[in-house]
Design a protein that fits this description.
2 domains, single chain, Beta-Lactamase, alpha+beta, 45% helix
Length: 316
């Protein structure tokens, strides 16, 4: 009978952390045919090894496909629950997702165990608290400055002017970042960390326009609407008309109200709840400011808002 130096193919099956298996089939070095043996036996052994490798590859492929299918079905169930304002029955979920009731029930059970879904009563489900916990983590990691940096640089490159990112703190705005260069055509007036009154700045007007009448009147009382230039708004009536214009247009202007020779336009940045969290503004020498930049500014602010999870139609 013909002899082989190694009569079997070496197959190492290693389990990975995710539970899948990897097969290492060596059909060249492990199976060393005896030169004096029957060639047909050598061919048979090689074919056996290839069959094992093919079977393991098929198994891994099928396992991966099944896992993806389960994720897809679970996502469909979660989306169906998210679109409903009230708890949903198994029958309704099955009809909405197109899943067989037994399949939907099995996946829902796993989601209940993982706390992604709550079983309100027998056969009735709603989204679980685990999703809220994860959502809070994601929201906490979203940083308006980080979300804005690239977009600010792109807007500066497009306009050639200084682009500011500001937030509200009390009765003032605070400049938290800026994109500018020597070609911007003007010296930076307010350094990062600098402050300015709400009613004298384009971004400040955005925040005042989002406040109710009682809050605006309280601001006027606290600050007295002190002015910096002859263009500054120093009366409640003048400020009220300006804020109405801001609400109508969706963006705000500073017409040399903070500094003579400097004009600004600003658009709001909103978070995933629709709340106004920052203002994006372009500052330029008064004679260089262009109305054509408004649309580019608004679109950039919208892009940044989208990075924070904002969806149009949601505002607060």
């Amino acid at each position: 009978m013909p002899k082989f130096a190694s009569s079997t193919a070496r197959v190492n099956v290693n389990s990975s952390a995710n539970g899948s298996s990897e097969a290492d089939v060596n059909t060249t070095s492990s199976i060393r045919p005896n030169p004096n043996s029957n060639p047909s036996m050598n061919t048979s052994a090689s074919e056996s090894a290839r069959s094992i490798k093919s079977a393991m590859t098929t198994h891994n492929h099928e396992s991966g496909s099944m896992a993806i299918q389960v994720i897809d079905r679970a996502t469909r169930l979660l989306d169906a629950l998210a679109s409903a304002s009230e708890p949903v029955s198994l029958k309704a979920l099955s009809a909405t997702t197109g899943l067989h009731p037994s399949t939907a029930h099995r996946i829902l059970n796993d989601l209940v165990i993982a706390r992604y879904v709550d079983r309100v009563e027998n056969g009735v489900y709603q989204l679980g608290m685990r999703l809220l916990e994860l959502g809070s983590l994601v929201r906490g990691r979203l940083n308006v400055r980080e979300a804005a940096l690239d977009a600010m640089q792109a807007l500066h490159k497009l306009t050639g002017q200084t682009v500011n990112l500001s937030i509200q703190q009390g009765d003032e705005i605070v400049y938290v970042d800026r994109a500018w260069s020597e070609r911007s055509g003007m010296q930076v007036v307010r350094a990062i960390g600098g402050r300015a009154p709400l009613h004298l700045t384009s971004t400040g007007k955005l925040f005042l326009s989002a406040a109710d009448a009682r809050q605006v009147r309280a601001y006027v009382t606290r600050t007295g609407l002190a002015g910096n230039t002859r263009n500054s708004l120093t009366s409640f009536e003048g400020l009220d008309r300006e804020l109405a214009l801001v609400r109508r247009l969706g963006y705000a202007r500073d017409n040399e109200e903070l500094e003579m020779g400097v004009r600004c336009i600003a658009s709001g940045i909103r978070d995933d709840t629709g709340r106004l969290v920052a203002g994006l503004s372009i500052s330029a020498p008064a004679e260089r400011m262009q109305d054509g930049w408004v649309q580019q500014l608004v679109e950039t602010a919208r892009t940044i808002s989208g990075g924070l999870g904002f969806e149009p139609g949601r505002s607060k």
